[in-house]
Write a structure and sequence with these properties.
Blueprint: E1 12-15, H1 21-32, E2 36-41, H2 44-55, E3 61-65, H3 71-83, E4 90-93, H4 108-136, E5 139-145, H5 159-179, E6 183-189, H6 206-217, E7 228-230, E8 233-234
Parallel strand pairs: 1-2, 1-4, 2-3, 4-5, 5-6, 6-7
Antiparallel strand pairs: 7-8
Helix pairs in contact: 1-6, 4-5
Length: about 240
Amino acid sequence: MNAKISEPSVRTALVTGGNRGIGLEVCRQLAGRGLNVLLGARDPKLGQQAALELFEQGLNVTDVTIDVANHGSIDRCLSKLAKEDIAIDVLVNNAGVYPPGSVLTSSEEAFRETMEAHYFGPVRLCRTLVPQMQKRKYGRIVNVSSGSGSFGEGLEGPAAYCVSKAAMNAFTVKLAEAAGSYIKVNTLCHGWVRTRMGGKNASRGVEKGAETIVWLAMMPANGPTGKYFRDKREIPW
């Protein structure tokens, strides 16, 4: 007879790149829905400031230091969480970079940095956290991608960014296949959002940019997995 898995009274979410822009708004909205939120930031001071801002609003948000482009930083963060017996139920791979340039003009360093942030970092996080989620029979993985990573939309944008987001999309499909039915793994394009990366002329605010991310993070047991969304609607890869 299988032992019954006891469900936590409160789920815990880790949001990378959570100290500003869309990531900060995702932290705000998830905490507002009752989750314990770990606000991930590579700069400890910026992470502390952002988490304090939300904590002072009565939200259960704590900062953690994690640079997703640095394997050592990822390992240190996960090791610290394990020692504190903190289980991650929801992972939002949001941290990102946006180097300019074409395939021929972008530096090799730009390609490496972008692939580390958008692909290898999320892969490393998922390879540690998903097996733990499988044991608890619950998990939500949200990979924040872009229309720039979509073959259906022509891979428009800077080369390194497009290639890395396309890799993230492919990883989403393969991870969903491997993770099993209790884990929901999805990706999305949040549209053009007014952030430091998106610029002041973007058509959307951060609230709209965070909307589909939060929706996927709170996906019910009968929800989709291995899919690509914009505005809560499935879109072509």
